[in-house]
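User: Assemble these into one structure.

Assistant: Restating your components, then the assembled model:
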Amino acid sequence: MSAAVTLVDLVLSAVLIVLACSALAVRSLRQGIPLFISFGLLLALIWARLAAPDLAIAEAAIGAGLTGGLLMVSLRELPTAANAFAVRFSAGRVLVDLLTLILMVVFTYAFWSGLESNDGGRLVNDVSARLPESGVSNPVTAVLLNFRAYDTLLELAVLLAAVLGIRSVGAPFPGPGTANVMLSGLSNWIVPVLIVTGGYVLWAGADTPGGAFQAGAILAAALIMLRLNGHDVVQGIGLRAERVSLSCGVMGFLLVGGAVMLNDSVFLRYPTEWAGSLILVIEVLATMAITFSLANAFAAPPAGGPASV
Amino acid sequence: MFDEQVIYGLTGMLLFVVGLRGALLHPLLLGQIIAFNISGAGLFLTLVAVAYDGGASPADPVIHALVLTGIVVAISATAFALAIARRIRGNIND
């Protein structure tokens, strides 16, 4: 049994590497990008194999789905096939290959000796010990939104900064197209299912794998499907609602973190009996912000030009 | 130290190096962006392999939270990079 499992692991790893190499080596990126999406989906399977179900959902939705979608949308406007593709032997290329080889050897040695030494001290025990006080029972959610809440706040700020950057610097996207019959028929089924699934994943994230980021990505996918059908929700909600929807994640987090200072005078230290509810409030606001931020990455700047944000 | 940790950890590092090589050598800007994403995925794979503790015991949730944050930051950076790439129309050789 164990040998068969190891064989499966080896095969999965080999396919992963082959997908990655071929995504970069094919002549045209029209083939390379679907290979990259497959790479992301296989990686999601590997997360599930490595006992990381939260990551599996997130990787499938965000890493493979949304990243792949962003790359596909950019296919139209960026060159996808180079004439001078396989640069023949040049000093630079040989140097890079040498660097690659040296790095691989160094990393292998470092990783191996790190695993061998195995100093113990796994944080899983500390997390499990304090999990009852955290307000949720999914350990990853507890770490994300309670023990390391500050990091999540900064992560939402990074997402907001990226959206601001995209809106101010990015070139305009072509507007939403007219949908054909099959796409609109499919969307009539998929969009409601996505909305319900997103809401469920958010709610279930407290006790089972799931959470705000996965839910935000699923809802963003729903908004993107709507846009593909010609209903641009992101553009259509108006400027004030747009600002609120993008910033409510960071703002909500700061407000909650500041409000609990009245109780304990430490930023983001939730009182234990309120922890579950506060986490839910933050997660709902974060989901909304993530949804609109990710959908914004797919959308065009407003008609007044980038400066009117 | 589990077999899975060794296999997936080394695979992750190989992916990092493959992505690094692609970022340096790929002639197209879009290809370089994809290569950075592959590098990032390789790093995440190595991290999660370290967090794995056998099927019976729970894996390290702090590392999982770190990788989840990493996935979201990676797509933010990719989206921004693509926006800039579209603005310069992929002309990295000017």
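Residues 91-117 of chain A form the longest helix (27 residues).
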